[in-house]
Specification:
single chain; 243 residues; alpha/beta; Aminopeptidase; seven-stranded mixed beta sheet; two-stranded antiparallel sheet; 6 helices; globular; UCP029730; N-formylglutamate amidohydrolase; N-FG_amidohydro
């Protein structure tokens, strides 16, 4: 199920857990020039640092699989509505992206190449797998350059209308000794496009998890974070099943 826009890790099982990471990669295809300094591809504007490794570790557990985006969010941001300006961002956290100054036809070609196959494949996978829970896995920088309010959490939890799994996850992650809560300065009500598209309309339980990048990006912490999230997901499935 590999494609230039996505990859599937692990063996999906009916009634299992699917970990979805829209921003797992900072890859820019050779035929696309974003016109930015190469070092920016290692920063949060290009990738959710650490989530590819953590999702891959989680997918080694029986009943877990990971669906991961395979191009940088600067090429195509899968966690946006198709008609939103941010799906092919002209700027990000104060940085202009000159290569994304596209004509209408060029923009449509970019979306047809990456956005549409990504979401079609995810929809097909969810229909086939019928997971008990979707974990939308992201990471965040402790502070945005364009926002002077630091984010106080080690782990942020995102959701929109359906907060069933989120409430279980918040309480469980607090027991793990983490500083955890509803994410700031934005929430899943604003930035929840993938889950809004695939989970909310059909009542599929999900929880959005954002890990702080200075923790998620350190290799020595990644196995422990993956294990913690596996425990969280299993607890959510168990409690939702008994509700």
């Amino acid at each position: 199920m590999d494609h230039e826009a996505y990859r599937l890790v692990g063996q999906p099982q009916p009634g299992g857990v699917l970990v979805v990471s829209d921003h797992a990669s900072n890859r820019v295809p050779d035929d696309i020039d974003l016109g930015i300094a190469p070092e920016l591809l290692g920063e949060h504007i290009a990738i959710d640092i650490g989530v590819e490794a953590i999702g891959t570790i989680m997918a080694q557990q029986a009943g877990f699989a990971a669906f991961q985006g395979q191009v940088s969010r600067l090429v195509c941001d899968f966690n946006r509505d198709r008609d939103s300006a941010g799906v092919v961002p002209a700027s990000s956290d104060g940085h202009t992206i000159p290569g994304n100054a596209l004509s209408r036809e060029e923009r449509e070609a970019r979306l047809t190449r990456f956005f549409d196959p990504y979401h079609a494949a995810l929809a097909d996978l969810l229909a086939e797998m019928k997971p008990a829970l979707v974990v939308s896995l992201h990471s965040f920088t402790p502070a945005l350059a364009t926002c002077d309010k630091p984010r106080p959490w080690q782990v942020g939890v995102l959701y929109n209308r359906d907060d069933r799994a989120a409430r279980i996850a918040i309480s469980m992650l607090e027991v793990e000794g983490l500083t955890v809560g509803d994410q700031e300065p934005y929430s899943g009500v604003l930035l929840n496009a993938t889950m809004n598209r695939h989970c909310e309309p059909v009542g599929l339980p999900y929880v959005g998890i954002e890990l702080r990048q200075d923790i998620a990006g350190r290799e020595k912490f990644q196995p422990g974070l993956a294990d913690m999230l596996v425990r969280m997901a299993k607890t959510c499935v168990q409690r939702l099943g008994s509700a």
